[in-house]
Amino acid sequence: MNDKDRTSKLWGGRFHEATDSFVQRFTASVEFDRRLALHDIAGSLAHAGMLARAGVLDKEELRSIQDGLQQVRGKIESGEFNWSVELEDVHMNIEARLTELIGVAGRKLHTGRSRNDQVATDLRLYLREAIDVIAGELTGLQSGLVELAAEQADTIMPGFTHLQSAQPISFGHHLLAWNEMLERDHGRLQDCRGRLNESPLGAAALAGTTYPIDRAHTAGALGFSKPAENSLDAVSDRDFVIEFCSFGAVLLTHLSRMSEELVLWTSSQFNFVELPDRFCTGSSIMPQKKNPDVPELVRGKAGRVNGNLMAVLTLMKSQPLAYNRDNQEDKEALFDTVDTVLDCLRAFAGMAPAITPNKEVMRQAAGRGFSTATDLADYLVRLGVPFRDAHEVAGKAVAHAIETDTELAQLSLETLQGWCAQIREDVYEVLTVEGSVAARDHIGGTSPAQVRAAAQRARALLAAR
Ligand code: ARG
């Protein structure tokens, strides 16, 4: 056979013709998996170190592989590395360059390993690092929210159900509700980190390898908690990608709810809060506009992150063991989720501490819509009236206030006593929004004292991370 007709691929031994140029482009992943380059090098260094301990490489060969990989890393970090689509993916680009630099020792690096365990290792290392960065951003956002909540413990706003004014609450309490959602997101993120932190190295293509490898050694060198238990599973499952994307989808769902509230609250109809100009943009046609684009975009990005979760779930569905090339499709969805999550967290971390409430508007709104009707009923219960009867009396008071176009706190004592003779002057204490909020004085309640205590507990949790 004529040598120039043969493919020059690292795997080209059994091939008789060059890869079709479309197939080359279609199967190549280097355009996106080069993001894994530094993790690929870390994995190779650990693998080479282990091969030398096992006597597969001699000292000289190990040193030359280590030097070569450092040089490759330098070129990648300085942006001078020449990535080639013909070399298909990040793994073969790096290995080929290494061999160019150091010669035959480079061709020994792949002993006892396959791209299948290599890519599974790289991806776990990459995601573990990304998770740590994301956890830091999440903690920053939560700290901002908790501090704002403590400051705003006494600020009163309407609490809603069905987006109808329900009962007055502390604005700080509302912000701490957001923090609770994020606290659970942080827990999900850490769960994902804990489960992904096992080393696939040594699984090789699928069945393990015949060399006397030390999987515990490579696992330890790369900071994994242990070698993955089963070689077939280690190269094939991407449930850690699914779990991360699922974390991202829940987080963005939470951020989209917060965004939606900010969009509502900044509208002229609500006018509850101001966002700083630097987080808003104007309209090219309507000079008066200040649009809450940042929360709107975060709300929109939830769609994209949900889509990524669907993509990786569907990618994994029905795949037979062990590795299949389908898995190459996990990367773009994962990378996009990491990028989007980070951007949205940074947007919120910058914006949240700068939310400025229009306290008087919020307080006025909290008093409208008969939001203290439950407090009137509770007051009657304290006088010995059964709750159902108390509910009925409070309902009559509301109906009367609607008919006479007034508020509950404006009804005269005489009028109130018309429904229940035991009502006294002190009823007005519970009919005010301040009285209503202060009365909900238990763990998880909205009284300013409880909000301050809850903020303190949240602070302590964040400090202990
Ligand atoms: N680029 C591939 C991936 O991301 C590398 C894995 C191995 N390829 C193979 N043909 N066995 O999954």
Descriptive report:
- This protein is mostly helical.
- The protein is built from 19 helices and 6 strands.
- Strands 1-2 form a two-stranded antiparallel ribbon. The chain has a two-stranded parallel ribbon with strand order 3-4. The chain has a two-stranded antiparallel sheet with strand order 5-6.
- Residues 1-5 have low confidence and may be disordered.
- The site of arginine has 10 residues, from helix 6.
Quick gist of this model?
The protein is mainly alpha-helical. The chain has helices at 21-27, 30-33, 37-53, 59-77, 90-102, 115-151, 171-196, 215-221, 231-236, 239-266, 293-316, 330-351, 359-367, 373-382, 387-403, 413-419, 427-431, 433-438, 448-463, and strands at residues 156-161, 164-170, 198-199, 226-227, 273-274, 356-357. Strand 1 and strand 2 form a beta hairpin.
